[in-house]
Amino acid sequence: MKVRQELLVDGHTNMARDLELLSAAEQGVPGCRVYTWDGLWVSLGRFQSAERALVDAASIRWVSRPTGGKAVIHGHDVTVALAFPIEPRAARGLKAAYRLVAAPLIQALRHSGVEVGLAEDLIEPVRNAPTADCFAHSSACDIVHPTTHRKVCGCALKLTESAVLAQASIPNGRPLSDPRLVIRDATSEPSENWDASSFADNLGHALSRM
Fold first, then answer.
1. Is the pLDDT of residue 186 over 90?
2. Quick check: 53 and 46 in contact, CB under 8 A?
3. Which of 40, 94, 164, 203 is the most exposed, having the fewest neighbouring CB atoms within 10 Å of its CB?
4. What is the residue range of 181's domain?
5. Overall domain count for the chain
6. Mean pLDDT, range 171-186, rounded to an integer
C-alpha cells in the first residue's frame, strides 16, 4: 500500500481527504495518508460536541472527525489515516479491527526509534475518570510506552459493512497550546520528541507486509 505524505493541511480538508480514503476502501482500494496540520487544531470524536468538550469553542479551530473517540490537539503531531477493505463479518469485531490497525503503527513507530506496545499486552485494564481528552484516557487497544504506560498514539475507527477507517495521532514534543486551556479536563503531561522523518516510509514497509 502506498503511503501519501501531506504537510500543513487545514482541518476540514484533512477530514474530507480521510473520508475519500474510506470511500475508496469500500470500493476495494486501500489507502493511507500521513499528514500534519497548518497550526493548532482540535479534532473531536463524531459523538462529541464542541460546547461540552472544549473550554472555549469560539476561540479555537476545531473539526469533527468521522471516527469516534475523544478530543485531540493537533499541530505538533503526526497524523495517520488508514483505510482498507474488510469482510462484512469483520465489521462486527471492533477490537479485532483495532488490533489489525495497531500492528503496522507499532512496527513503524518501533523502526522510528519509539518504544511502544499494545496496552492490553502490557498492563491491566484501567478505569478512567470522565474526560473529553483522548490522551487523558486509555483503553486496552491503545498504543502505549511499555515502561511508563503513557499513551503514545491515540487512534479511533469508523467501521462500515465493507471497510474500516482509522485516524491516529502521534504527538511529537509539546503541543502548541496548553491542553488544559483548550480541552476540558485535559492532561498536561508533555509527549516526548521523536524523529518522524522516516515514519511514513516505515509505515509503508509495515503495511506492505500485512
1. yes
2. no
3. 94
4. 3-208
5. 1
6. 95
